[in-house]
Each structure stands twice: as structure tokens, then as C-alpha cells.
Design brief:
462 residues; alpha/beta; Glutaredoxin; FAD/NAD(P)-binding domain; 5-stranded mixed sheet; 9 helices; globular; binds flavin-adenine dinucleotide
């Protein structure tokens, strides 16, 4: 057992209780510059066992590239068998069979015996049946971001006849897809995993005819009246009548010395689902005091020897929902270190130790560990919208009554903006990316669905 886990504090001060924290007339525009992409996937096919059991990933446990493949599959709820070349003799056997070398790792091996060496997100997306290209150059609505807000908008929009495309830079599901157990989403009294919620939402959207493009970023947005033009990172331009920004937030990184170079080699961001089983018999650490950290701790506690939550807060009850904290406190191998922070990490090719500082006494302790999960909040990744829509100083997108008139990104029309409309008419925002949003799945779903009402009104107005 790691030294640090011996020092355990209560999650909250004695005696304290936690606290919970009409149809659009949609027209088709002329086709504009579809950008078909000829691609030669970096892929080798070989014959292996006649009936390999399922999708397999062969790699090194402490390789960031292997971690990324596992994380992508986990987020898409694609079951796979993990084979660590260093500890699993069968992995070496499989390598021999396919004729791959360690330089090819990670290796994604399909049940039919074909495999992809060092696959990119785009290659994995294609091989697991996700589309990476839009089927048309024009849509009524392009939704940027396939999290709860974007998927809810897509379901409502498509069910009401709006021709809708959802583009996600990773995989549909968003942050919610990283959640191991969501307990407070309406209609699921026993809770459900974020991956399951995402999978249900994608299936529902696709049933209504929504197109979903994965592993593609939207990197700019411009106006070519009467259209809005969305530019993808492969050079494709998509024309549409309206855009919904549902880009959520991205994880903040822990800047303590040593952490950055160990990302994917023991330091992980929001990846508890993909790495939980690798924490078996380890003393794992989590930085963060919010519900996302709490949920990850719940999951890891069934694998790791011990799980220690480290956070600068006086009490974990400040930010974590009471039900979650109650459950964590009842688990024997979960420990709490409030008023503490991780100030360093070290290891040659993988995480070996972290240093925790007690913020009251200034005392530092270095503890051995192979897994540090970081959940220290998030910020919106909206730099690409600079000068296009108005944003607050943190980068959250301003909409509706929050917009000022005039200035380079002021509201330009005589009519008032619709409540979720940004400073660029016809471009709407919903979910965590909106300034003042609630940062909950239910709220994101609500805003995504509501946005469709305003998008209909915008389309009718035109
Ligand atoms: C681990 C974890 C557990 C959580 N647990 C709960 C819970 O139990 N209950 C609860 O209510 N809330 C929970 N939350 C919060 C909840 O998940 C978020 O509030 C919700 O997902 C926000 O939805 P969203 O659609 O606005 O954004 P997101 O879910 O962040 O989705 C945004 C999507 O946009 C994509 N994207 C971003 N930029 C681009 C771009 N330029 N081009 C293309 N795609 C882009 C991203 O890849 C992402 O898929 C949790 C969050 C986390 C991380």
C-alpha cells in the first residue's frame, strides 16, 4: 500500500452535512464544394486465428498512444480485450501471428483478423462504424459538438423535419460519455453510465435521420449570406441555414512539475473508465472534489487497492453531491485528503510517485503510485470563435439577453436576439459552452431541445 494512503482525513468537517451542489420551413441550397477525401488508411490486413474472440488492443500499459486507443473505444462503448505486451505472454503470441513489431503498437485487431497499427482517432472511428465525412455539402442545421446538448438538439430538430448534421471532434457523447455512473438524470432511478446514455442518444438521433460525423473538428465559422459556413479540419466546407454551438468544455490540466510529460503514462484526464482495470492492486489518486472526481473514485474503488481523493477544499462537501459523498464515505478503501494539492509527479517512462502538499502545514509527502486521475474543472475550447461571436473573459459564448449591441461582436439586428442566439444571427449556443450555463446533463439536454424552437423561429423569419 502506498505511503500517502495511510494518511487519511475526513471528507468533511465534523458535524457538517454535504449539499448538492411549429415546424421550420427548411429549404435546400445548391450543392457547394463537397470535399471528397481519398484516403489510404495506414492499415495492414493479415490472417490470424480463425475466430478471434473480439476486438483486441495490443500495446504497452504505459504508452500514451495505447491509452488513447483504449479511451476512444471505452467512450464509444466498444468492448475490447486489452493485451499488455509487457505482462501478457498471449500479447507476444498475437504479435508474432500478425507479424507486427513493437514499433507498430498499439495494434487494434478486429474479429475478422484484420488489424490497424498505431490507429488515429479517424481510423478507429471508421473501423468501428462511425462516419468521418459528411454525406452532403448542405444541411438545415449543423450542430458542433455531440454531447448531451448537441444530441438533444439533433433529436428534436430531426424529429421535426430539420435536416441535421452533428460534428464531433472525438466521439458523440461528450463529457457525459466519460461519466462512469450518472445518478441524477431524470427517468433512470438506478442511474446509468454516461456511455450508455450517449449510445442511446446517438441511436435515437440516427433513427430520426441525423447524420453524425466523428473525429472531425470544426475549426472556423463564417457567413456567406444567406448561409452559415462551417469549416472542418479536413478542409471540408459545409453550408447551412443555422448552426448550434454545443462544444461543452475541455479539462483543465494540472500544471504541477512532471505531470505533463506523464499524461497517458499514469496521469489521466477523465479516463477512469478506460484505465480502471489497470489499477488493480494499485494505490490510485484522484485530484478534484467535484462530482466527476467522486464518480471516478466510486468506479476505481472496485479495482484499486486504495483510492485517495486529493483537493484543496476545506471539505469535500463543498462541491460534491451529498448522495455521492455518503456512498464514498462508506467504502473502506476510499480515503480523503482535503486541504491538499498535488505539487509534483515523477517517473522515467511511467508515473512512479506523486508529491502531495498539505496546504495548512506546508508539509510535503511523496507517495508511490502508478495512477493519478485529474478532475480539476474545465474551460470552453472556443478560441476558434474569436471575433465571430461574443464570448465572456473565460471564453464562454454569450447569447440572448447577455449580448451587448454594437462593437465588433455586438448584436447587429434591429430585432432582439432569441434567448440562445449568439451575436452572429442564425448561430445558437447550448449547454456547458454557454456563458452562465448550469453544467449539468439535464440542463444541457434542456437547452439543446429549447434551441430548436428558436432555430425554427429563425428559419421562419427568413
Ligand atoms: C466525469 C464526468 C461526470 C459527470 N457526471 C455528471 C452527472 O452525474 N450528472 C450531471 O448532470 N452532469 C454530470 N457531468 C457534467 C455533464 O456531463 C455536462 O454538463 C454535460 O455533458 C454538458 O453537455 P454539453 O453537450 O454542453 O457538452 P459536452 O458534454 O462537453 O460535449 C461537447 C462535445 O463537443 C465536442 N467538441 C468541442 N469542440 C468541438 C469542435 N470545435 N468541433 C467538433 N466538436 C467539438 C467535444 O468533443 C464534446 O463531445 C459530468 C461530467 C464529467 C466530465
Amino acid at each position: 500500500m502506498g505511503g500517502g494512503s495511510q494518511k487519511s482525513c475526513s471528507a468533511r468537517p465534523a458535524g457538517a452535512r454535504g449539499r448538492g451542489n411549429g415546424h421550420g420551413s427548411c429549404t435546400r441550397a445548391p450543392a457547394r464544394r463537397p470535399t471528397p477525401r481519398a484516403r489510404e488508411p495506414r492499415q495492414s490486413t493479415t490472417s490470424m486465428n480463425p475466430r478471434p474472440p473480439r476486438l483486441r488492443v495490443v500495446g504497452f500499459q504505459w504508452s500514451p498512444a495505447s491509452h488513447e486507443v483504449k479511451d476512444y473505444l471505452a467512450r464509444n462503448r466498444v468492448p475490447y480485450q486489452w493485451m499488455d505486451l509487457e505482462s501478457d505472454p498471449a500479447a507476444r503470441e498475437v504479435m508474432r501471428e500478425v507479424g507486427a513489431t513493437p514499433a507498430d503498437l498499439p495494434l487494434l485487431i478486429f474479429p475478422d483478423g484484420s488489424y490497424v497499427a498505431s490507429p488515429s482517432a479517424e481510423e478507429i472511428a471508421e473501423r468501428i462504424g462511425l462516419s468521418t465525412e459528411a454525406g452532403s455539402p448542405f444541411y438545415d442545421l449543423v450542430v458542433v459538438g455531440g454531447g448531451p446538448a448537441g444530441l438533444a438538439a439533433a433529436v428534436y430538430g430531426a424529429s421535426e423535419g430539420v435536416r441535421t448534421l452533428v460534428v464531433d471532434r472525438e466521439a458523440p457523447g461528450g463529457q457525459a460519455g466519460m461519466s462512469s455512473h450518472i445518478e441524477n438524470y431524470l427517468g433512470f432511478p438506478r442511474g446509468l453510465s454516461g456511455g450508455e446514455l450517449a449510445q442511446r442518444a446517438v441511436a435515437q438521433a440516427q433513427r430520426f435521420g441525423v447524420e453524425v460525423v466523428a473525429a472531425r473538428s470544426v475549426d472556423s465559422l463564417r457567413v456567406e449570406e444567406p448561409f452559415r459556413v462551417v469549416h472542418l479540419d479536413d478542409g471540408t466546407e459545409l453550408f447551412c441555414h443555422a448552426v448550434l454551438l454545443a462544444t461543452g468544455v475541455s479539462w483543465r490540466t494540472l500544471e504541477a512539475p512532471g505531470c505533463r510529460s506523464l499524461i497517458g503514462r499514469g496521469v489521466y484526464y477523465g479516463a477512469a473508465a478506460a484505465e480502471a482495470s489497470a489499477c488493480r492492486d494499485m494505490d490510485a489518486y484522484l485530484v478534484g472534489a467535484g462530482n466527476s472526481a467522486g464518480q471516478a473514485a466510486m468506479l476505481l474503488s472496485s479495482f484499486a487497492r486504495s483510492v485517495t481523493l486529493v483537493a484543496p477544499e476545506e471539505s469535500f462537501a463543498e462541491r460534491m453531491s451529498e448522495y455521492l459523498l455518503d456512498r464514498l464515505e462508506s467504502i473502506d478503501n476510499v480515503r480523503f485528503r482535503p486541504r491538499s494539492t498535488v505539487v509534483g509527479a515523477s517517473g522515467d517512462d511511467r508515473l512512479e510517485t506523486i508529491t502531495i502538499e498539505d496546504l495548512e502545514s506546508g508539509e510535503q509527502e511523496t507517495v508511490p503510485t502508478g495512477a493519478l486521475f485529474v478532475f480539476i474543472g474545465a474551460s470552453p475550447a472556443t478560441e476558434w470563435l474569436e471575433g465571430v461571436v461574443a464570448r465572456d473573459p473565460q471564453g464562454y459564448v454569450l447569447a440572448g439577453p447577455a449580448l451587448a449591441r454594437g462593437g465588433p461582436t455586438g448584436w447587429p439586428l434591429e430585432r432582439e436576439p432569441f434567448p440562445l442566439e449568439t451575436a452572429l444571427p442564425g448561430v445558437f449556443v447550448a449547454g456547458d459552452a454557454r456563458a452562465g450555463s448550469v453544467k449539468r446533463i439535464g440542463a444541457a439536454v434542456g437547452e439543446g431541445s429549447t434551441a430548436i424552437q428558436y432555430i425554427h423561429e429563425y428559419l421562419r423569419e427568413r
